[in-house]
Amino acid sequence: MKYLITLLLVSTCSFAFTQETTPVDHPNFKAFTLEELEGQMKESGRPWLPFLKVPTLSTGIYSLKVGATDRQQPHDQDEVYYVLKGKAKFEAGEEKANLAVGSILFVKANVPHRFYDIEEDLEVLVFFSAVKE
Questions:
Q1: CA-CA distances (angstroms) from residue 14 to 4, 5, 7, 18, 87?
Q2: CB under 8 Å, gap of 24 or more: what pairs does 50-58 form?
Q3: Are strands 48-54 and 25-26 parallel, antiparallel or unpaired?
Q4: Alpha carbons 5 and 115: distance in angstroms, whole number
Q5: Which residues sit opposite 55 in a β-bridge?
Q6: What is the tens place of the pLDDT at every residue in 28-85?
Q7: What CATH code is assigned to 28-129?
């Protein structure tokens, strides 16, 4: 019995240690940190970093510097933006909004939209719905 308890404790401790040091990457689950994603974006030198794509959803981070021009075109998916950093204005169709950290936007598929008058470097988390068929 004592041997069994010792074996169980060693296994549990080993499992816990493994869980803390092994990156999470399962077919049904992925974990990301903003710091890692920002590092990847900086390393790429590009303003768009896609980081998850599954059949029903895709996500990425989009970044624009102060004074930059947003050249994106309408997308064929519904889209949600969450402002992580910065301050800017946004227009979608005829609608306009002032944005700051914490702003959340929904844009319907195929609606022309853009960020403009970027006052502080802008970083947004983007969620796209599945492509319409």
A1: 15, 14, 10, 6, 46
A2: 55/130, 56/129, 56/130, 57/127, 57/128, 57/129, 57/130, 58/127, 58/128
A3: unpaired
A4: 61
A5: none
A6: 889 999 999 999 999 999 999 999 998 899 999 999 999 999 999 999 999 999 999 9
A7: 2.60.120.10
